[in-house]
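Hello Y.,

Per our agreement to keep a running log of every chain we model this quarter, I'm adding this entry. I've kept the format consistent with earlier entries: sequence first, then predicted structure.
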Amino acid sequence: MTAPASADPLAVFAALERGAAAPTWLARGIAEAWLPHGDAGGESDVRLLAVSENATFVVRVAGAPTLVVRVHRPGYVDLDQVRSELWWVDAVAAETPVATPAPVRGLDGALVQEVRDDAGTTWTAIGFAFVPGLMLEDVLGEGPDDAVPWFGPIGEVVATLHAHARSWERPAGFSRFTWGLDDLVGPAARWGRWRVAALDAPDLRVLEEAERSALTLLADVPLDAREWGLVHGDLRPSNLMVAAGTEGVAPDAGRLTVIDFDDCGLGYYLYDLAAAVSFYEHLPQAPAMARAWVEGYTAHAPLTRRDLDVAGALSMLRRLTLLGWTVTHREDALPPDLAAAMLPGTVEVGARYLADPRWLLG
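Predicted structure for the entry above:
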């Protein structure tokens, strides 16, 4: 996101708490697009799940969750990019063992629907089958120690996605944005400029030096088929689901369902490792999480020492990217403890990277 909050089209949802009813225009538009009889019986109920780059709603019919609808920020992605995301989701579901919710076409047979608000603004919306269960983030117990064993299975899932991305013949017209260095931390960074955060001069120097060091390492990485391709871009515990009752069950890749491919794009493959530890980088458990991810990944695909150095640099830049993200998003987009730790934690991560670029991955 590059626009200031005051110009954010998603501000229309700013007054909504999670679980709040959708605006009437949106509930009506969703019913007309996906429900066979619209909402003639008044039995549909549309509630907010989350607001980030997009707004996500759950649709219940006669009390039963039926559909999840994602409403896109006008101008954030174009129709070709939305369709391309769904093409990859369909291919992953059909051609790999990775579980992911199926896209749900509208009544007109189209994957992408358009809904008009009361001011005449057109919003792009897509639907997915509702998947029962819980976000992995919500079943990890009281502390990050409980999360560590799940990072191995996450690495396994990512290795499968990367293998598919390398072999998949993209359809004609496929188009997704990139996660290059400028997209992460450049002047027009996709999620906002991290320098906007309220940093004092010493902390700013630490982060500028850490950024410079990471960029220097990554400048020599070729953007070839081994290093660069289609990535999920945000595969972390909040974008993975497990069945209810999974608490206490041994972590296993087969228990995971991948959601939210909306950040998928062309980037460094090992950016997906950086994404996995998002918001956890400052915690003492972060190295154990990263090592577990690598162990899971390398059960399916090899990684070299150089690869791990690249991943470490990308993790540093990802943390800066997330700092930019936090200053352009709703306060409730993160749990309160993680939100409070973003600025001081990012400075701590920067200092660690400067002291030892291999601190995260050994």
